[in-house]
Amino acid sequence: MTNNLQKKLSFLNHGVSQKSQLPILLHILLETMDNNKLKICTTDLEIGIETYLSATIDEPGGITVPAKMFTELINSLPDDILTIQTTDSMLEVVSKKTKSTFPTANKEDFPSLYEHKGEKIAILDDARMHDDFGSVVFAASSDTTRPALSGILVRKEAEGFLLVATDGFRLSLKHYKLPESTTMEDTSFIIPARVFKELLAIKEENSAIAMYVSSGSNQILFEQGETILIGRLIEAEFPNFEKIIPSDFSVSVTFDREEMQKAVKICSIFARDAANIIKFAFHKDHIIVSSSVSAAGENTVKVDATLTGEENEIAFNARYLLISFQQCNGQGNDI
């Protein structure tokens, strides 16, 4: 049905190259399988996406078709039964009232996404993964000239694994617990942040996500339902983050997240022309959040809080704080 194909293409297009010098990367691979399934693949050589769709197969075969045109057509069609067939060097898409033809390219020119899945190292829970992975991936760098910082460190722990991301200015760390039945050998690797972001975008009804690592091809694979996401592990040394995390604290403060988030947002208006810098002044029962720009003015916001330790003052980047508060949504109001 058209509707099922539309849902698949919505995610598959994340893997289509946007400006590649290789024309084949602008295509979608369509290939029949023996179990009455149609395999559909896209890749930009950084990530690959493979998914399957139930279909009635009359003749086996495979072909590639321009992704943009094909997707626009499918998204424009009403929900109906589609017939996809090849005629000479063209692909025909036929519905009850429409018939469209596309130029094609040989499937042999389309890059292979992976040779084998590799070793299954973990089973992830979809609901928990969105919360736990989402609270880490935002801190990774978008600058690929420093490869290690553009990825997420995944390191085996006793009850699961540790997730760490940093862009050199901020750091996010999360302990992810695996089910007791899951086994995972002692290992660590760096997964591109983009792979995690795409993983969070998969919309499959099956909540279980299988995680594979292929050491031979240096690839990471995530399989959920009938969709597989493939990425290449980053070969770099991750910064020694443990040295910059204090082992103890002389001051701690507790406050309501939503109240503080509103205060930071208000002060960020005045901080835009001052490198987004806002100040926190810690007092025994409250925090004064402030920002000032000589040409624009200043403002202060009082936030109720509980302080343990000496009163102090510190400056933060308002943009980083707002992003961090957003990642804390659903994890309680107190910070």
Tell me about this structure.
With 335 residues, the protein is α+β, with helices and mostly antiparallel strands. The chain folds into three domains: 108 residues, DNA Polymerase III, subunit A, domain 2 (DNA Polymerase III, Chain A, domain 2), CATH 3.10.150; 126 residues, Roll (DNA Polymerase III, Chain A, domain 2); 76 residues, DNA Polymerase III, subunit A, domain 2 (DNA Polymerase III, Chain A, domain 2), CATH 3.10.150.10. Helix content is 20%, strand content 39%. It has six helices and 20 strands. α3 runs antiparallel to α4 and α5 runs antiparallel to α6.
What is this structure's SSE topology?
Layout: H1 2-12, E1 27-32, E2 37-43, E3 47-54, E4 62-66, H2 67-76, E5 83-87, E6 90-94, E7 99-103, E8 119-125, H3 126-137, E9 151-157, E10 160-166, E11 171-177, E12 188-192, H4 193-200, E13 208-214, E14 219-224, E15 227-232, E16 252-255, H5 257-271, E17 277-282, E18 286-293, E19 297-308, E20 312-317, H6 318-327
Antiparallel strand pairs: 1-2, 1-4, 2-3, 3-15, 5-6, 6-7, 8-13, 9-10, 9-12, 10-11, 13-14, 14-15, 16-19, 17-18, 17-20, 18-19
Helix pairs in contact: 3-4, 5-6
The CATH class name of the largest domain reads: Alpha Beta
CATH level-3 fold name of the largest domain: DNA Polymerase III, Chain A, domain 2
- E-strand count: 20
- Second rung of CATH, namely the architecture of the largest domain: Roll
First and last CA, distance: 48 Å
Query: Which whole number gives the mean pLDDT?
Result: 90
Q: Would you list the SSEs in sequence order as H and E?
A: HEEEEHEEEEHEEEEHEEEEHEEEEH
Placed side by side, the strands forming the largest sheet appear as 4-1-2-3-15-14-13-8
